[in-house]
Amino acid sequence: MPYSLVYGMEVVLPIEIEMGSLRVALEQQISKTEWAQFHYDQLSLLDERRLKAANHVQAY
User: Fold this and answer.
1) How far apart are CA 50 and CA 29, in angstroms?
2) What's the domain count of the chain?
3) What backbone torsions phi and psi does residue 25 show, to the nearest 5 degrees?
4) Is there a contact between 11 and 17 (Cβ–Cβ < 8 Å)?
5) Could you read off the pLDDT of 3-41 as tens digits, one per residue?
């Protein structure tokens, strides 16, 4: 709560970003392509959050 009052957004802890291993994905019948796409999407989301935070800091 205090973080959102100061920065205007909720904190995202690294443990909230799920990036499973390829071995586990293969055991769950997820293709390598789907696994790679999921990881790419998660990294893109992380970059977006970092940019949003940087833009918010620059505004002040």
Assistant:
1) 32
2) 1
3) -60, -40
4) no
5) 666 777 777 666 555 656 767 767 778 788 888 888 888
